[in-house]
Amino acid sequence: MVTNTADWALEEPSESIVPQYGHTFPWLAGIDDETYKLPLDTHGPQPDVIERLITVCVESRSTWTLGDLFPSVNSGVPFASFSQSVRLTNVLRRENIVDFGALAEHTLRYVMSLRNMGAKSVEELLGYLIGLAIRSPVPEMTATESRADSSRIARRRERRRQGAAETLTLSSQLLEDLEVLSHWNVARGAASVSLFGSASPAAEAPDYVVSAAIRLSGLTAYDWVQANSSFESLASLLTAHLRDLSDKELEILTRRIATNKADTLEQVGLDFGVTRERIRQLEAKLKPVLQSWIDPSTALGMRAMALRERIRPVSHIDDVLHDVPSAAGSLLHSELSAWLFLDKIDDDFESEDVWLATPSIQSAKSETTVIFDQVAGPNGSAARDVVRETIGEWSQLTDNRLTEWLEHVGLYRVGAGWANLKSRSVPNFAAAYLEHEGERRSLEQVDAAITWPHSILTLRNALLEDSRFTSVARGEWELASWGGKEYSGIKNAISEALADNGGLVSVQSLIDDLVPRFKVTETSVRAYAAAWPFASEKGIVRLASERKSVRPKPPGLTRNLYAAPGQTRLRIRVTSEHLRGSGSPIAIGAAAALGMTPGEKKTFVGDLGLVTVSWDNQPLMSSIRQILVSLDAAVDDLVFLSVAGDTVTAWTVEPNSDPLIALAETVGSRPTERLDADQLRSKIAQSLELGPDATWHDIEARSAARNEPELADALTAALAVIRDE
User: Fold this and answer.
1) What terms describe the molecular function in GO for this protein (predicted)?
2) pTM for this one?
């Protein structure tokens, strides 16, 4: 235990300096260096400066605690002392947050996810705290607290920063280029790749690495590193930085930040004989130091970027350490392995159990389910080959690792395929299983496929009570959407027609024959003729040589996507990732509805902000944070983006007690008064890309095919009212 506490007192600066914003907000370094260097205006900063500070907090420092972001703000400052919006006041009161101390140990991301905490409320709170911090800035570090990086990479970094016009000999330039690019390639697990013949590094590489690659062409990183024995492990780089810390800083780091179970401020303060407030201030001063370690222009920063590139988008830790063994190893001052220690101080990748992902595990899980849902059937199933071709290609995981990852995400094995269930229930699994199999199955077969404990009697009762299933023979079941016996009868009839006509038959002749015989629609015949085991092309049907792998859903069958005259409307449920400015994947059907094709990028501009959609392997939508701030949207709010031509408008869906109005608003309509049943039916049909004569039964069928809970619930509630009336 530390008994001498004199050296824990705040030290006065050793010389007079002009205070800068970087002194009060050191976390600006490397993110907004222009604001960092601005002279501090204690009389009140300009609005654009406050906006820049808020943007850095939300977009780049959301995993920091409020205490780390604003170390100079006293814990006892009451929140009742400043003018607040009603919404913010209600949130603070409900959460019993009366002063800064109640928030200091919570991350900004936690605060953003508080129920009903809108984006505008977050900015209001941050603006108030920024003002407090400016009026009571953190004292400057003395010379004894400064850090000096003496590595060769750091000296080159300093030359680049100062723009020194230094002339190097050819051999010196070559040696420097070889060292820079060798460190980069070895760090990202590409030690055997040719230095001179390979493609330029990824865009995530530092500029000086890209420049070195341009000047080089033929030698491998492995050859260079082995010849010079100069490549340091991740553990040795981290240990070198740890040795620069004082004993008290090292204690705070290993007990509060780089640990699997952090001690409380009270525990650490008690051991050192100081207050929890003093520990919090010292911890806040330490955070920018840790961030400087992984600055992209440092050796450790380059190593962190390379590790993230190897991880992207998701990887198993064993595979990462196999490719990048230098990331393993233990540290002298910590119980954590080197890669896990780096995870604790690097916000741009995250670990969970045996999985690593960039930028977070949640973002990797979300993208996995979005890609899966695009190729899944209405009941949530997808064939294994289709999953391998889509999610496997996106993730670059091996077949075995892909299986482990899908189970970690929460998907279920269904036969030889997979399913994403709306909820874990026997009937949902049975529906996904039958959909995957594509044919009737016995009760015993369905029972054997379900992977969790249940009774066959429970299964039988569930199938009898659920309208999704039909018993087509003794003990055999199909999905009701297949049309019962008509489904297998139509398939047999098409097979017989092919056999009678030499393996080829026109779609029109099938329609003329089967529509009156089986009392089905022309659309149904076309659907069966185009589905496995048949193939339809240019009006001619034949037996398919193989099952089609991926068929993206059309806009009318895409979840959360609705049509309107001249408009495409996309409904979004706001997450904390949206509020912090992250981009998000969207369905292929949504991108197609916007008139896009693979390889395209489009920007849509509106009064509340702009949205950019790019379609590479998977369509991605840019940050919509500015739009959400303008709407004051909170986590779990429903927001519509409506695109017409090159413009975008947005609005929030407010709860409505009238089921008919609520249904209209669910599909993006904004009625000013209650619609009658026929008007409502027409609007809903149009939004789902059905014809104007579509019945409520047609709409229910389309809703079931979309497998969209919000739409299904709103439709059920509205139809109950309509039928009562």
Assistant:
1) DNA binding; DNA-binding transcription factor activity; DNA-directed RNA polymerase activity
2) 0.58
